[in-house]
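User: Please fill in residues for this 249-position structure.
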């Protein structure tokens, strides 16, 4: 099962109820529709960063990054290369923005002015003065963070933070749905592929379905290859596209 996303409506009961017809509610509803219309988690995140710039007051750029325990970072989506460089300031992307470390214990972190301590940071060097970082999901090993950036200091206030938390709840739900869909699709493809490989082995080795599947599993373990990858190799070899099959039980 996919990891559950941690940002949910119950996390911010202090947020005000918006009146019926309020334009923010309408904008978030439209954004939710766009997010749930995506076909994969990657598409969902790309849509999310574009929407973040449109929805969050003062936001000019946005990106989504994954931070692992120990500081290793990977950019997952970004509106432009400036944001990608801001998220990965050193070669290899091993040093995330220091404020992000706080997201292990709090869902939101704001940087009011990257030049406040002398302007020596990567953000200030890129002309990015303010950030609003919102935790999308977390487990013991990694964080997924959506960050909005602005070129003026103190760009993100409490209103922007509230809107950001509402928006990330929608992003989290859409990511959850996209992940489930992707896993189900992959499971169906894997099942069909393994079924084809089993049928090929039944014919080639003159054995029943149980024996063919057991042979496939043993070969997977012996060659240290994932079952679906070995099945694909067998199917490809049988169709004349190359690769090695299972020749011994």
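Assistant: Residues filled in for all 249 positions:
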């Amino acid at each position: 099962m996919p990891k559950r996303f941690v940002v949910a409506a119950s996390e911010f009961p202090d947020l005000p109820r918006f009146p019926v017809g309020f334009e923010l509610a309408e904008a978030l509803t439209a954004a939710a529709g766009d997010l749930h219309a995506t076909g994969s988690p990657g598409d969902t995140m790309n849509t999310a960063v574009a929407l973040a710039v449109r929805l969050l007051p003062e936001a000019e750029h946005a990106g989504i990054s994954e931070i692992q325990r120990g500081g290793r970072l990977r950019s997952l989506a970004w509106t432009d290369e400036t944001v990608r460089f801001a998220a990965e300031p050193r070669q290899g992307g091993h040093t995330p923005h220091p404020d992000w470390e706080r997201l292990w214990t709090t869902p939101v972190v704001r940087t009011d002015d990257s030049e406040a301590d002398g302007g020596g940071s990567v953000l200030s060097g890129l002309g990015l003065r303010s950030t609003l970082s919102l935790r999308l999901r977390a487990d013991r090993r990694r964080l997924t963070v959506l960050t909005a950036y602005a070129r003026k200091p103190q760009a993100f206030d409490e209103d922007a933070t509230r809107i950001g938390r509402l928006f990330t709840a929608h992003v989290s739900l859409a990511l959850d749905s996209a992940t489930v869909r992707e896993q189900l699709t992959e499971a169906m493809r894997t099942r069909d592929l393994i079924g084809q490989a089993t049928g090929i082995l039944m014919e080639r080795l003159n054995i029943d379905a149980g024996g063919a599947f057991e042979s496939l599993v043993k070969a997977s373990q012996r060659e240290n290859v994932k079952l679906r990858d070995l099945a694909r190799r067998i199917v490809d070899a049988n169709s004349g596209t190359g690769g090695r099959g299972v020749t011994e039980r």
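For context: Residues 158-205 form the longest helix (48 residues).
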